[in-house]
Amino acid sequence: AQSVTQLDSQVPVFEEAPVELRCNYSSSVSVYLFWYVQYPNQGLQLLLKYLSGSTLVKGINGFEAEFNKSQTSFHLRKPSVHISDTAEYFCALGSWGKLQFGAGTQVVVTP
Amino acid sequence: DVKVTQSSRYLVKRTGEKVFLECVQDMDHENMFWYRQDPGLGLRLIYFSYDVKMKEKGDIPEGYSVSREKKERFSLILESASTNQTSMYLCASSPGGLAGNTIYFGEGSWLTVV
Fold first, then answer.
1. B interface toward A at CB cutoff 8 Å?
2. Can you tell me the distance from the alpha carbon of B23 to that of A46, in angstroms, rounded to the nearest whole number?
3. Closest-CA residue of chain B to A7
4. Residue B99: which of A44, A97, A101 has the nearest Cβ?
5. pLDDT digits (tens, 9 = 90+) for A31-87
6. Which distant-in-sequence residues (6+ apart) come within 8 Å of A43 by Cβ?
């Protein structure tokens, strides 16, 4: 069975501070890993994905994530957040063309 | 840009009504999906389709059915709406072939069943 666990349901952070969103996965087969962002009242937008190769993946809007196979993790980071980064972030595991999502992490950026 | 369009953003239906949620994609994608999003549960897959007239159950298909008569259109049907189907519904599409292809989402349909 496959699963995705996002360890924090909500992360408050001050503007210009760094943020890390944690994601752990469980799978018995090779997987692909994704981070999506959902701004208020919108659909999901891809931030980045890991398919193979370099374990450090860079995405849009200054986000990056590191794939760690031994720890079965795919944590998302941004060195300096903006107010506009306030959104919900979803980690997802892909296999057989489908995505299995974590429960989401709400990031609230305050001045 | 890929565009996935969901015909209704907000719907209010009565218990027992038959509800249709329509989705159209403009990129000739083979795969289409319907997800349901609830607070604290993330997105859960209801049904997906790899090709016209093909459909497979996802994780929570009970109470739902789907139709894909044309490649670009994927409909979600609630045969008899119930209050526990009040939720946000997201349609998505992706190219066929590689399993790591990006899945593109519509803006969602908020359904309230009263």
1. 4, 31, 33, 35, 40-45, 48, 50, 58, 90, 92, 94, 96, 99-108
2. 19
3. B40
4. A97
5. 799 999 999 888 999 999 999 888 999 999 999 999 999 999 999 999 999 999 999
6. B4, B90, B105, B106, B107, B108
